């Protein structure tokens, strides 16, 4: 096996909160055959608890506080992009990153930025996915990993995992089961994507 075949794709994870999907990706990156490594975790919120989790796992962390940039979203994203460049990042994984991205950053990472969404897209883009699935009487819900484009949760689907809707589900119980599926799906989808880059 050549060095090229063994090389791991340097991946950044962007978070805004606790980072449970981030933790699943970091854990998956530790596997001997993982095709990606987590080069840095970045949050727009300095107090995001996921930063503490990542640091405890010996992953470099960086906070780029969006509040310091006022309403200039692109300036904030340019600061994030500078961190990505400093860490030699090749792929960006959004994991509970709660900022709408500008066309500048989406274009900068076109085809190299992934997101996970808690519905079976194209159903229920945006928020309140579980309540919407229950209100529609759906028999299954689930999660989707997709490439990020300028639309909201509209980019090309890379992989999905379905979860059955149970008779007495609430948005909260369904959300918990979907989140468990997300922790399986995201590492699998990111690994497949990174293998395809070699």
TrEMBL record:
Q: Which InterPro entries match?
A: Formyl_transf_N, Formyl_transf_N_sf, GART, GART_AS
Q: Which residues cross the membrane?
A: none
Q: Where is the active site?
A: 117 (proton donor)
- What GO CC terms are in its UniProt record? cytosol
Q: Where does N(1)-(5-phospho-beta-D-ribosyl)glycinamide bind?
A: 19-21
Q: Where is the Formyl transferase N-terminal domain?
A: 10-190
Q: Which GO terms describe its molecular function?
A: phosphoribosylglycinamide formyltransferase activity
Do the record's keywords include Cytoplasm? Answer: no
Q: Which Gene3D superfamilies match?
A: Formyl transferase, N-terminal domain
Q: Which GO terms describe its biological process?
A: 'de novo' IMP biosynthetic process
Read off the Pfam families from this record.
Answer: Formyl_trans_N (PF00551)
Give the pathway listed in the UniProt entry for this protein: Purine metabolism; IMP biosynthesis via de novo pathway; N(2)-formyl-N(1)-(5-phospho-D-ribosyl)glycinamide from N(1)-(5-phospho-D-ribosyl)glycinamide (10-formyl THF route): step 1/1
- Primary role: Catalyzes the transfer of a formyl group from 10-formyltetrahydrofolate to 5-phospho-ribosyl-glycinamide (GAR), producing 5-phospho-ribosyl-N-formylglycinamide (FGAR) and tetrahydrofolate.
Which family is this protein grouped under?
A: Belongs to the GART family.
Q: What is this protein called?
A: Phosphoribosylglycinamide formyltransferase
**Taxonomically, what lineage is the organism?**
Bacteria, Pseudomonadati, Pseudomonadota, Alphaproteobacteria, Caulobacterales
